[in-house]
Amino acid sequence: MSAQEGLGLIIAGVVMFVGLVGSVLPGIPGAPLILVAAVVHKLVFKAQSASYLALGILLFLTFLSVLLDFLASVLGAKKMGATWRGVLGAMVGAIVGLFFSLPGLILGPIIGAFTFELLGGREWKESARAGAGAMIGFFLGALGKVICCTVMIGIFFLSALWNSGSPANSPGTVVANSRSARPSWGIGLISAPPQNLSLLPSFHPTPLPARNPPRFPRPR
Predict the structure, then answer these.
(1) Residue 48 exposed, middle or buried by CB count within 10 Å (0-12, 13-18, 19+)
(2) Is the Cβ–Cβ distance between 86 and 130 less than 8 Å?
(3) What is the pLDDT of residues 118-177, one digit of tens each?
(4) Do 109 and 33 contact (CB within 8 A), yes or no?
């Protein structure tokens, strides 16, 4: 990894940490900021950044985090016995609470669910249960967003470090390496120096003794 790649990872990590904090604090986009940092890092460092598969997973987790942000309080209110009025009130309270920082995000769905249930003719105890469900859903949604952002940061850094550590082989380099690794059998046979035959042990064949041809008796 070069110094430029290391600096790029540090900058991306700082921006992603801000996004992780923004998953809890209002006014700072959480998962979308992490996704933007990953995409910019990919555009700058290309093959030495996260893979396209990792970016696809980050995109999916971003949508999941946004859904948790809006639906957690609604589902919590519904779980605690809220009617459609309480669910609608939690949604309206969550939207209005975006303009009032962290207290608005917490109290908005609670007040919305409680108010809409109360206006629908239900008793205050049942309305309070709907508001409590919206509050529980808010905290569960915040926990889900933190988990999504943490997983996104982990996936990005694992993929980016893996790709930055692998050598970028160009086609010319691969061909050159394959040619240099190829054994030169033919060249070795042609350019091999001849051996000194005088160093080899001499061999003198021993002549066989002469044999007289067999004599056969003449017929009478």
Answers:
(1) buried
(2) yes
(3) 887 777 777 777 777 777 777 788 888 899 999 999 999 999 999 887 654 434 434 334
(4) no
**CA gap 78, 130 in Å, rounded:** 7
Lookup result for tokens 């940061």 = 153
CB 139 within 8 A of CB 75: no
Threshold 0.70, pTM exceeds: no
Give the tokens for residue 136: 């529980």
What would you measure as the largest C-alpha separation in the chain, in angstroms? 158
- Rounded to 10°, the helix 3-22/31-45 angle is 170
Residue with tokens 């051996």: 195
Work out the angle between the directed axes of helices 124-165 and 31-45 (0-180°, nearest 10): 10
